[in-house]
Amino acid sequence: MNEFQLDEVHFVLDTRAGSQRGTSDTDSFILVKNPATLEFYESLRAVSPKNILELGMFEGGSMVYYDKLYSPERLLGIDIRETPIAALERYKRGRAHIKTFYDLSQDSPRARGVVQSNFPGGIDLVVDDASHLYPQTKASFEMFFPLVKPGGLYVIEDWAWSHRQQYQAPDSTWNAQPALTNLIFNLVVMTAMSRVIKSFTIYENLVCITKGRGMLPATKLDIRHGLRGRQMPLI
Fold first, then answer.
1. Could you tell me the fold of the domain covering 33-226?
2. Which of 20, 59, 125, 131 has the lowest CB atom count within 10 Å?
3. Domain chopping of the chain, boundaries
4. What's the pLDDT at 20?
């Protein structure tokens, strides 16, 4: 584990298996990110996103990290967990620009309403670090990417989990789940088909999609009419 300070807040990088990870407290926040991922987010200081949505808060460390890194005007987090993150709830006291919503799945229709009402002017940065599962992540993209401002960014973390060694065995975790890479394939094709995606960048642990000025067809990621009548199977 690595540790660092940012604006007097102590962060601990903890990328161990979920059951082994630490818990955030008032003096130390857990970040499930490696140094390369932090370097990516630090590079976004140049664009200074002011309206930020995070899907999947875990122990709240990334919410605090984005707050310190970008000084946003609105910072909203959604998580499926029912129990509030105590350290994050203490941190956000007196910081009215931070809002957290629990017991709320990333693909829930209710999440759409929550996000729309809190970002009436659009979103500058979405970070999806929630389920990492294809159906849920795709549904979130279809709901929230249309709310991103032109030039804004949509980040999906841990897209490559299905290609890691520990997931290759037939009895491995999520073996029956389709790869999140299926969404990546769809987004690559959509980049060619529509001006809705201005650019698409793939990193080892995340992908970053820059919003263009087009619109998703019927607000869905439907690429069938761009495959020359062929099928793109799930992997």
1. Rossmann fold (3.40.50)
2. 20
3. 33-226
4. 86
| 192 has a pLDDT exceeding 90 | yes
Dihedral sign computed on CA atoms, order 18, 175, 134, 35: positive
Got the DSSP string for the chain? -EEEEETTEEEEE--S-GGG----BTTBEEE---HHHHHHHHHGGGT---EEEEE--TTSHHHHHHHHHH--SEEEEE-S-SS--HHHHHHTTT-TTEEEE-S--TT-HHHHHHHHHH-TT-EEEEEE-S---HHHHHHHHHHHGGGEEEEEEEEEE-TTGGGSGGG-STTSTTTTSPPTHHHHHHHHHHHHH-TTEEEEEE-SSEEEEEE-SS--GGGS---GGGTTT------
CA distance 224 to 221: 9
- Give the pLDDT confidence of 73-117 residue by residue, as tens digits: 999 999 999 999 999 999 999 999 999 999 999 999 999 999 999
Q: For residue 211, how far is the Cα from the chain centroid?
A: 15
41-82 pLDDT, tens digit per residue, is 999 999 999 999 999 999 999 999 999 999 999 999 999 999
